[in-house]
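Two records follow; treat each independently.
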Amino acid sequence: MASELIKPKQLRFVVDETATLIKFLRKQFPNKGSNKIKQLIERKLVTVNNETTTYFTQQLQIKQIVAVNEQPKQEDIVFSKIKILFEDESIIVIDKKAGLLSIATQKEIEKTAYSLLSEYVKRKNQRSRIFIVHRLDKQTSGVMIFAKNQDVKIKLQQNWHEMIIERTYSVVVEGFVEQKEGTIISWLKENKMYKMYSVKTPDNDSRKAITHYKVEKQNNEYSLLTIRLETGRKNQIRVHFFDLGFPVVGDVKYGATHNPIKRLGLHAKLIKFMHPVTNKVIRFESPIPSEFLRLVQ
């Protein structure tokens, strides 16, 4: 998503007296040492009249334009894609933007929430690590928990249903949902194409899924729902509202007809859980995305 990218900051200067490039830049950046300025030139971040140069001693002429593209700090890149809501010695809780993978897949190896957080903690201590506890789909935004050591990861994953007190999603679906609140129960299975589907009669391969929902706002085209998960099965919300005939906005895989917000209409709004070390109950919330609210105005 374009809004997630941080572009290099470009500084432009007009040459007012003849000088070498390195001398001119020292004057423009009195707080930068010579080595820092040389690095800018070596990394091809300096142009003269729109031509990249790597010569420190290039002679500049009056009225030439020197531009310096200062690369964004890694910290700026990290925090353009994720917002850290909480951090201590055991866990990090983040608010992830839509369009960012939780962790790399075989098909997609790119910047992920996991890799950004790994880079972030290693800047403080090279031995620090990050561990995935659960995932959100790439086009789903909202609150996620990461562990900072293996023991905490295992404790959260093995005791997930006992430690997670509440998980709430904001979801926008296609259509006017007439029943203003309700509970959906089915057993979910996965086919050979890795697509989940509901069955009414349970068997050894199916897992029970329970979704509670309430309509918050709607018009003739869309409905905004608050959804509370009693279980946390793969694609549970997406399958359940496909079953009802109200597919999640943008979810072509599960029946959506169009994608007006260029993402899934799924947002992990709230998570309330028992801290894996202190045992205190903590709660984190992310605001409903503005594009969801615009659809139901």
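The next record belongs to a different protein.
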Amino acid sequence: MDKQTPLSIWNQLNSRQQKYLELIYQADQSAERFEKMSWNNGRRSRPASVWRWLYYGDIDDRPSPLKSRLLRAELVDNGTGSTLNALERRTLIECDGTVPELYIKVTRLGRKAVRTGTNESVFKAPRTPKGMLSYKAWQAMVLVFKAGKEGVQHDGYSKYTEGIHMYTWRHLEQLAPPLIQGYSCSRFTAFGFIYYSRHYEQYRETYPDIDTPESRLTIDDIINKLRAFRMQTLVQLVQMKRGVKGIQEAADEIGTPVSFAALSQFEDGQTIKLEQLEKIIDWLVQ
């Protein structure tokens, strides 16, 4: 009898079993990225024999990240246990417990079956140019822009959404000024909206395989959008970016036609010329 290959095993699965295995594999890869990023951020690394076990169930009445994936694919039903048992019999996964609460680990054979069955290729993100957001960070920005007022909804506690890890979302939240805000739902801050509107063309050229929608807005459009957000005002954003710098130093950095007097008036809430406002916004998004 011929030895079965990962591909032949994959082809023997029905479409439902394939989708289950693929989603479990994706959750496994998310956990692996989380461990690598945690280690890079100084946290003690855990062995794969620990972090590869993925919890399937509910935490405080909210679905775990793995269960969330299956729910979104509309695969959680009375047949869930049978499907998992079928995958376990083929040694593609291991299970500890039973539905509705258990831990699941995809095996080495299971990972190989998904990779060969789906023709997965290893993606290497392009190098981040100096002064720009990373590939994944810009992907997150595009998702937020496309989501509009509804924002990007996050399921579970891992905040892993559309292939973008929680650390990327946190990075955008912790920039000074922050570009997005929200825990379970990410939306643009006023500055994030400005940043996207002023830089999307540059990112289109840098990351051409990301579907970046255009945002052609005038300065008046941006100002009106800022008022609608009811978040940070431009004055607050300028003061946040200026930090400990004096007004004169910041005005010199911004450049003509913004003078010490113009920037002082602006921070006092007084009206300044449109060309000065444009220059300040350009400085904000540098």
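Discussion point: DSSP finds 14 helices and eight strands in the chain. How would you locate this feature using only the token line?
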